[in-house]
Amino acid sequence: SQQGEEDPQALSIQEGENATMNCSYKTSINNLQWYRQNSGRGLVHLILIRSNEREKHSGRLRVTLDTSKKSSSLLITASRAADTASYFCATAITGANSKLTFGKGITLSVRP
Amino acid sequence: GAVVSQHPSWVICKSGTSVKIECRSLDFQATTMFWYRQFPKQSLMLMATSNEGSKATYEQGVEKDKFLINHASLTLSTLTVTSAHPEDSSFYICSASRQLNEKLFFGSGTQLSVL
């Protein structure tokens, strides 16, 4: 099965609401990253959190990492219709030099 | 941020032909590039790791004679789908990073349709 598993698989919210997406993984990691993908396009890096970090912020994004539970969450505050996209977590596994493993992704729909 | 250019964006070809996809890092040297395949509404599946000046490392189940990867310079990697068949139709994406285990910069992807 996937190293990273996101939930929920799909999320639909109203503009202005917050969106919370979760990711769980199985093995020891160097870091965990979140990416965004618009339909038919490549992925865009959002944020990276290292294994010794617990929380990180970037604009309207907040990422947490709990290595004891092997889980991470991505919070998008004050969502906008333009945030509609698929979001993936990816883990850089300890010892697996430079290779990222992606989860299945979460489809976020923000209704205007 | 860094830019990775991938082209073509889409290609339609006849069964049995070969298709080449290029991936370029425009403003940094990428000793390692990655090729992924993605089916509709699914995750990215890593196909191979492309290393400049050496043979690519393929993931289990990926046919290296089918998917030829060449990383001839620090800014260019190519993926050639040889003797393409309809089941090869997919979205192919390349990526590169400045440093090991750090963030990836992705190309915009290539939608391949084999008739």
Shape of chain B: globular
Structural class of chain A: mainly beta
Taken in chain order, the helices and strands of chain B follow as EEEEEEEEEEE
Largest sheet of chain B: 7 strands, mixed
> What is the approximate shape of chain A?
globular
Quaternary status: heterodimer
Largest interface (C-beta under 8 Å) = A-B, 25 and 26 residues
Q: Give the mean pLDDT of chain B.
A: 92
Residue share in β-strands of chain A: over 45%
Helix content of chain B: under 10%
* Count of helical stretches of chain A: 0
Structural class of chain B: mainly beta
Describe this entry's structure for a reader.
- The complex is a heterodimer of chains A (112) and B (115).
- Chain A is mainly beta.
- Chain A is 0% helix and 58% strand.
- Chain A is built from no helices and eleven strands.
- Chain A has strands spanning 5-7, 10-14, 19-24, 29-37, 43-50, 55-58, 61-66, 71-76, 85-93, 100-102, 106-111.
- In chain A, strands 2, 4, 5, 9, 10 and 11 form a six-stranded mixed β-sheet that branches.
- Chain A starts with a strand and ends with a strand.
- The model of chain A has no long low-confidence stretch (mean pLDDT 91).
- Chain B is built from no helices and eleven strands.
- The mean pLDDT of chain B is 92.
- The termini of chain B are far apart.
- In chain B, the strands form two sheets. In chain B, strands 2, 4, 5, 6, 9, 10 and 11 form a seven-stranded mixed β-sheet that branches. Chain B has a four-stranded antiparallel β-sheet with strand order 1-3-8-7, with no helix packed on it.
- Chain B is mainly β and 115 residues long.
- At the A-B interface, strand 4, strand 5, strand 9 and strand 10 of A face strand 5, strand 9 and strand 10 of B.
